[in-house]
Amino acid sequence: MATANIVGQARKGEGNVPDIPESLVYEVLDGRPVYFKGYKDVLNGEKQQAEIMGISGLQGIIISYLVELMFSKIGSKQYRILFNEIGVHINHNQNLASDIGIYDRKLVTPDKINTQYIDVPAKVFLEVDIKADVEDIGETGYIRRKTQQLLKFGAEKVVWVLSKPKIVITATPDGKWDFSDWDSNVEILDGHVFNIGNYLKAEGINTEIQ
After folding, report:
1. Do both 129 and 113 map to the same domain?
2. Most buried among 19, 23, 64, 132, by the most CB within 10 A?
């Protein structure tokens, strides 16, 4: 959307800011570009850009499990289930990315489906791990700020699945934040739950994160 303009604005008056390609911008939060985790390795020539864009096998299997569960349990008649880093356009200062979004079909009408970012809120946003470089504000600060923006936008729930600490965070507009072990049942929507730990064990996947 307005990413190029915002990147340019962020560089003004900051002579020590390197010339960072727009392609390394993961999202725009509070009017400032947030880069892909590992972008400095690309700038230093230690990695190719493609090396930092993908997700791990564990992240992929968790996202696959959640998407399959949603289609089988929640269905797609009432909701549109979108995934694969959905672009979320909140305003000219906020262009975020989300792993999975469960959208009310009444809001995401056919005319809303185009080559631009989605500009209406999902009922539920789900994030699996952090894919952005958050050195400036830290993981906790990033999760809190991004979640606040998605809830302010109109989401009814934001869920984070974090693989290293093996926890699930659920936040709602009333200010309530729940922290659960990922072996616990966590409700997605309409009484339907997921359980990351149980699923991985059933699949025979080693949950000891290296």
Report:
1. yes
2. 132
- The reply to whether 86 and 159 lie within a common domain is yes
Structural domain for 43, as ranges? 3-53
Q: Tokens 């020590």 map to which residue?
A: 16
Rg (CA), the chain: 18
Contact 197, 183 (CB under 8 A): yes
Q: pLDDT under 50 in the chain at which residues?
A: 1-17
Q: What's the CA gap between 173 and 135, in Å, rounded?
A: 27
CA–CA dist 101, 123 (Å, integer): 7
Per-residue pLDDT at 6 = 36
The answer on 124 and 28 residing in a single domain is no
Nearest residue to 140 via CA among 131, 127, 130, 125: 130
Q: Where are the alpha helices (DSSP H) in 119-195?
A: 138-153
Torsion region of 138: left, alpha or beta (phi above 0 gives left; psi -120 to 50 gives alpha)? left
Query: pTM for this one?
Result: 0.89
Same domain? For 157 and 198 the reply is yes
| Tokens describing residue 111 | 């005319």
User: What is the Cα 108 distance to its own chain's centre?
Assistant: 19
